[in-house]
Amino acid sequence: RSESVGFFLREAADVGGPSCEHTDHRAEARSSEQRVDWSSEALDDIQVKELNRRSSGQAFEVILSPSSKDANREFPLSPLKKKGTSLDEIKRKLDAAEERRKSHEAEVLKHLAEQRDHSKEVSQKAFEENCNFRNTVREKLNQKMLANMENRSAQMAALNEKFKEKDKKLEEVRKNKEAMKEN
């Protein structure tokens, strides 16, 4: 079996990008060639096909052949061995599924109960706050009404006192007038 590897080579100027320093790309290519095994055995196993040329570089397809005939054979994946399912195993799986269903149902019911309790707490708190607000408003209103009644009674008492003083002055003026008439 042979393997195919595709890659794309660029011109040396495209790889480095713009730079202020002069780099010798040929020296880099020579040093990379020194690392590769270029023996005749290795070269016999490699086939290179040129795919197409572009302005930015060339594309090649590299085909690697196996190095020995033993490597040529394929190792197919063995099919999954299916075990025969027994009644006990089926029953065990059904019981496990039933247990999962029951636990999920219990979690859902627990969550719903928590939500219901929370909504009850919220409504109870709102009711208590509303009652407290009503009581404080009622107390403030009663205090204002009491203060208004006290102020009104004080004003009425002050007016009555003024009227009594005026009546006394008028009575004195009448007495003085009668006394002057008699004289």
Question: Descriptors for this entry?
Answer:
183 residues, microtubule, Stathmin_fam, cytoplasm, alpha+beta, 4 helices, phosphoprotein, disordered N terminus, Stathmin_sf
Description:
One of its GO terms (biological process) is neuron projection development. Residues 80-114, 142-183 form a coiled coil. This is Stathmin. Residues 15-38 are annotated as: Disordered. GO terms for molecular function: tubulin binding. The protein has 183 residues and is of the alpha+beta class. The protein has two domains: 3-16 and 28-68, no CATH class; 87-183. The chain has four helices and three strands; from the N terminus they run E-H-H-H-E-E-H. The chain has helices at 12-16, 25-35, 40-45, 87-182, and strands spanning 3-10, 46-54, 57-64. A three-stranded antiparallel sheet has the order 1-3-2. Strand 2 and strand 3 (57-64) form a beta hairpin. The radius of gyration is 55 Å and the shape is elongated. The model is unreliable at 1-23 and 29-34 (pLDDT under 50).
